[in-house]
Design brief:
Elements: E1 3-5, E2 12-15, H1 16-22, E3 33-35, E4 41-55, E5 58-67, E6 74-76, E7 93-95
Parallel strand pairs: 1-6, 2-5
Antiparallel strand pairs: 2-6, 3-4, 4-5, 4-7
Length: 102
């Protein structure tokens, strides 16, 4: 899975088809609208809670927003710029928290 580091993003988001492949439930009650830098808007499908993400040997438990159509697999927001070890590494592993499937 390819990750995009975006210093301007305040969330972590995954593309819809990759979320489906993980087989984890989404909470639609927490859906929000994604506003891109070009001012386009897209309704997100909801949030996936407590997803394990491993980057450069560091493990994170995240709340990931599901977006229908996106030019990225996984969007990593400004939080990840706090971890210098993450910056050179764009490869990541996402784990299904319910069945440990990757």
């Amino acid at each position: 899975m390819e990750c995009v580091l975006d210093q301007g993003a305040q969330i972590v988001a995954i593309r819809h088809d990759l979320w489906e492949a993980l087989g984890v439930p989404v909470c639609p009650d927490l859906a929000m609208t994604l506003v891109a830098t070009n001012k386009s808007k897209e309704e997100m499908l909801g949030i996936v809670k407590n997803v394990c993400l491993k980057i450069s040997g560091m493990e994170f438990k995240l709340q990931i927003h599901v977006v229908g159509d996106a030019p990225f697999d996984l969007l990593l927001g400004c939080l990840f710029f706090c971890f210098p070890v993450v910056l050179p590494t764009i490869r990541c592993r996402v784990t299904n928290p319910f069945c440990q499937q990757t």
